Amino acid sequence: MSSSKTFDPKIVLGLLLFGAIAFVATLYFIGVGETSRGTNDGGAHAYGRGLNGYAALIQLLEEEGHEPEVSRSAGSLDDEGILIITPPAYADGDEIKALIEKRRYLGPTIVVLPKWLAYSPPTQIGSDVKEGWVVLADPIVPEWVEDLDYGIELQLKDKETGWVGLGQRGQLPQPDAAMSANSTQIVPIILAENGDQLVGYLDDGDAYPVLEEAAGVQGDPDAEIDRWNVMFVFEPDLFNNYGFASEQRADIAHQIVDLAMEGEDLSITVDLTLNGLGAAQNLLTLAFSPPFIAATLCLLLAMVVVAWRAFRRFGPPVTEGRAIAFGKSRLVRNSAGFIERSKRTHLLSGPYANMLRERIVKALGLKNADDEAIDSAVARRAPEAPAFSQSFANLRNAKSPNEILRAAAALKSIERMLTQ
């Protein structure tokens, strides 16, 4: 039987659309990697917009025609092309050295050292403070540089000093806090005014003609050209947002990146994993990659089939009938069925025998008669009827359903013979 609508189709459709939109939005945010904490957290990395960050470097490279990729995946460290890393002060020197050595045949590596301790601006400064801004504290020297085993000795200058190199000369944004190095294994490209190294490349015995020309040194004509260069930026204020307050320093940073490419048109990757911003593999991309794409397609097909069956049902919905139907006969049948299922049939024999006894006594017109009197009266009225006392006793003593039915039928036959 058909019934009225349980749910309004418009409401159901609205719920389905809302769920679909929420699901698509979830997939989008997973795809773009917006499921974790923000990256503009005041750190010294490519997404940092504070003084110690390198967001301005990324923007400059894009405006100069490059297509830098800011990567949060450890897998990008093995990609060919130039890699720019900005390790923090607490980095693992052995890990950085292993990364440098692994990339010698993949592409150039630019290592920008950290210098500034930074913290979020206090709330007393006012509402003009933007997200990611920092206040610079005292400069520090990263200890992990010693683990590189390149003989690099870092030092901080407390006297004002400028920089010189690539045919230019200028000042640092904070000249009394310059970080420089002295190492026989580093060929300087940018020097401090006192001769210390601010930017240079690793001298490993190979030939780097482009870098040698920029550094003004004479290379070994018999040296091999097998490996890519490793560039060290000891003074990060030449690369960070603080340094990019000067157009001249921004131009020097761009020239250093171009020099590291050694005249080749290489892709640029800026790493974030060493800064603790690595991300797991994109779940959305993983779902559409072998071998998981087979399960994804099966799931999408199942969703289409379920949606089609839901909106294209076969006929109207059917409701169940009443558990107990109307009418005396149905009530009796239901009661009898309940007694039968509960296995209490033997409890009916006694009451039923007493009821038939009263009806037989009434049919005989007797009052307060015993079983012998009833037997005598039945024998006179219906000689062919069975003995009442025996049938009555058989019904009261019956236990199994078959015995009860036979005894009840015998007693009922006496009543029937008397009422005909």
Your description of this structure?
The chain has 420 residues and is α/β, with parallel strands linked by helices. The protein folds into three domains: 1-36 and 283-321, no CATH class; 38-278, no CATH class; 328-419, no CATH class. 38% of the residues lie in helices and 14% in strands. The protein is built from twelve helices and 13 strands. It has a nine-stranded mixed β-sheet. A two-stranded antiparallel sheet has the order 4-5. It has a two-stranded antiparallel sheet with strand order 6-9. Helix 11 (388-397) runs antiparallel to helix 12 (401-419). The chain is rod-shaped, with a radius of gyration of 48 Å. The model has no long low-confidence stretch (mean pLDDT 84).
Give me the side-by-side strand order of the main sheet: 1-13-2-3-12-11-10-7-8
CA-to-CA gap between the ends? 46 Å
Q: Regions with pLDDT < 50 over 5+ consecutive residues? A: none
State the total count of DSSP E strands. Answer: 13
Strand and helix order: HHEEHEEEEEEEEEHEHEHHHHHHH
Which radius of gyration do the C-alpha atoms yield? Answer: 48 Å
Strand content: 5-15%
**Helix percent band:** 25-40%
> Count the helices. How many?
12
Structural class: alpha/beta
Using brief descriptors, characterize the structure shown.
13 strands, alpha/beta, 420 residues, 3 domains, 38% helix, two-stranded antiparallel sheet
